[in-house]
């Protein structure tokens, strides 16, 4: 069984609902706000704009990294609204997973015709 499979399925369903209502072409912040509202309506616990300090050789540095959404204290959701995701966006998600200690992440690009084509699931 996949780690956090039930949670990621619920997040995906919520994201599809947002995409059906709004379509592509808006700012990431709009999709984030609407996705958070949809997660709330579905009874999923989440945190928004979670600070992520960078630790280097035992020193915590305040580099202002922020994870867009953390759902059910276990799934990191990184939201994009770009022409296409690239390897650097997946690397960003994987870095957030490594730095936070969470194991499961979703990269969701809302700027696509069909949202299923804009969702990437990664596990550390």
Measured distance between first and last alpha carbons: 15 Å
Count of the domains: 1
Instruction: Give me the Rg, rounded.
Output: 14 Å
Structural class: alpha+beta
CATH class: Alpha Beta
CATH second-level architecture:
3-Layer(aba) Sandwich
Question: What name is given to the CATH topology?
Answer: Endonuclease, Chain A
What does the average pLDDT come to?
94
Strand order of the largest sheet: 1-2-3-4-5
SS strand fraction: 25-35%
Please report the number of helical segments: 3
Give helix % range.
25-40%
Order of helices and strands: HHEEEHEE
The number of strands is 5
Main sheet makeup: 5 strands, mixed
Low-confidence stretches: none
Overall geometric form: globular
Question: Would you write up a description of this structure?
Answer:
The chain is α+β, with helices and mostly antiparallel strands and 124 residues long. The chain has a single domain (5-123), classed as 3-Layer(aba) Sandwich (Endonuclease, Chain A). The protein has helices at residues 5-22, 28-41, 87-100; strands spanning 46-56, 59-71, 75-80, 104-109, 119-123. A five-stranded mixed β-sheet has the order 1-2-3-4-5, sandwiched between helices. The radius of gyration is 14 Å and the shape is globular.
């Amino acid at each position: 069984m996949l780690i956090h499979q039930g949670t990621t399925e619920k997040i995906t369903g919520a994201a599809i609902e947002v995409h059906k209502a709004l379509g592509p072409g808006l700012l990431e912040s709009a999709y984030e706000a609407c996705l958070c509202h949809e997660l709330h309506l579905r009874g999923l616990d989440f945190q928004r704009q979670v600070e992520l300090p960078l630790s280097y050789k035992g020193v915590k540095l305040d580099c202002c990294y922020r994870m867009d959404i953390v759902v059910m204290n276990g799934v990191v959701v990184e939201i994009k609204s770009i022409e296409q995701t690239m390897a650097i966006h997946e690397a960003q998600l994987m870095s957030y997973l490594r730095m936070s200690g969470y194991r499961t992440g979703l990269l969701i690009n809302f700027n696509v015709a069909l949202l299923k084509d804009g969702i990437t699931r990664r596990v550390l």
